[in-house]
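Try this one yourself first.
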């Protein structure tokens, strides 16, 4: 958690249109398209460390729903997200309580049961195809489902906590899910060196299911969720990453 951009950002305005639901005992934010949509497809929105409470996350989920995809955002932080990013005092209190044990507390043993329960329940309801969109902290859960071939399309935006090159080599060897990565100029968690390694392993047709990477100049880690929309480059990156993600789902999901 040495990445300052993982813990900061700008709150986006808007009123969420989805609803909080319990799915197999897991609290989830669910955004449902208003018109007809394919009931056998769901996007799993795997959040950053601000989780379900962050308005920005909910608005993004609503955006996918408006493009025809039911979107489910499970609480992969088990009720313990970082508090309001606009309040340094709240974050300081959270850090004092949790920082030294944060990663063990929120490691794979904490979120694997969550995503497994939600996938199990959605499959029982008739969902047969899953897309994932993992932001920052949500990248490893997205790869987890891809490695199991439970998911059918993977999108990452400014991913964190990936092992490079090991996770990309494993992805190439084990996953059948097309992969899109939305990357940026300044990102200590997925820097240009890691971006180049991902391209080297999966690019130029080496990953048959499909691989794409977008790159957004003038953007920093977190831009696709918490970017400052008053900055033209950040606004273009945030909107461009969302558009690329929707098009990727339309193509592969």
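Now uncover the answer:
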């Amino acid at each position: 958690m040495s990445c300052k951009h993982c813990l900061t950002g700008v709150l986006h305005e808007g009123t969420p249109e989805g609803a909080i639901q319990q799915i197999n005992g897991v609290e989830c934010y669910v955004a449902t398209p208003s018109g007809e949509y394919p009931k056998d497809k769901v996007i799993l929105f795997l959040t950053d460390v601000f989780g379900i409470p962050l308005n920005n996350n909910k608005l993004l989920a609503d955006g996918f729903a408006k493009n025809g995809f039911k979107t489910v955002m499970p609480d992969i932080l088990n009720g313990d997200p970082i508090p309001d990013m606009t309040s340094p005092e709240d974050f300081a209190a959270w850090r004092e309580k949790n920082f030294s044990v944060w990663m063990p507390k929120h490691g794979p043993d904490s979120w694997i049961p969550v995503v497994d329960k939600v996938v199990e329940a959605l499959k029982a309801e008739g969902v047969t195809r899953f897309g994932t969109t993992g932001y920052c902290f949500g990248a490893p859960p997205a790869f987890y489902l891809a490695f199991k071939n439970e998911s059918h399309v993977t999108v990452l935006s400014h991913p964190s906590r990936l092992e490079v090159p090991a996770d990309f080599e494993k992805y190439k060897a084990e996953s059948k899910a097309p992969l899109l990565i939305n990357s940026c100029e300044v990102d200590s968690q997925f820097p240009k060196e890691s971006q180049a390694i991902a391209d080297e392993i999966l690019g130029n047709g080496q990953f048959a299911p499909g691989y794409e990477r977008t790159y957004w100049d003038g953007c920093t880690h977190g831009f696709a969720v918490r970017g400052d929309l008053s900055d033209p480059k950040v606004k273009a990156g945030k909107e461009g990453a969302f558009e690329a993600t929707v098009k990727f789902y339309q193509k592969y999901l």
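Discussion: The chain is about 40% helix and 20% strand. The radius of gyration is 17 Å.
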